[in-house]
Amino acid sequence: MEISCHLGDITTERVDAVVNAANSSLLGGGGVDGAIHRAAGPELLAECRRVRAERWPDGLPVGEAVATGAGRMVARWVVHTVGPNRHAGQGDPDLLASCFRRSLEEAHEVGAASVAFPAVSAGVYGWDPAVVADVAVATVRQTAPATPGVQEVRFVLFGEAVLAEFERALGA
């Protein structure tokens, strides 16, 4: 598996699947979640409502992931995951690792060969970008053997400081 990182807009990545740092409602929000919902259009919201009705009526749990179509985006799928919120006392790195592991597993299950990840929980959820980078890179590397169909993972990041942490983690 090829793993890379760069600054960019995750909504325009030419990959099979884009990972959404979603909230448990799956109905859109701010940050990456809001950007993905805006780019994907109403088709994504309709799919998320269906997922809520059929599979996760109480909302997607922290650390879990679920795939939907990507609506109007270039990507074919959106893999939604709910990161832990440090401000709400969710400081267990295993929960954060679960986001990356379960997202990669979901991408593999739908047949995605390429996946773009944001820095899940490094924004308004208050996790230190260095910790997110270390957990994300280690988890993707550990999960790679169980997801052989995924050939490429890109971490698409929103700022120079976060990019620097992912570059450090990838070089470690």
TrEMBL record:
<dbReference type="InterPro" id="IPR043472">
    <property type="entry name" value="Macro_dom-like"/>
</dbReference>
<dbReference type="Pfam" id="PF01661">
    <property type="entry name" value="Macro"/>
</dbReference>
<dbReference type="InterPro" id="IPR002589">
    <property type="entry name" value="Macro_dom"/>
</dbReference>
<protein>
    <submittedName>
        <fullName>O-acetyl-ADP-ribose deacetylase</fullName>
    </submittedName>
</protein>
<feature type="domain" description="Macro">
    <location>
        <begin position="1"/>
        <end position="172"/>
    </location>
</feature>
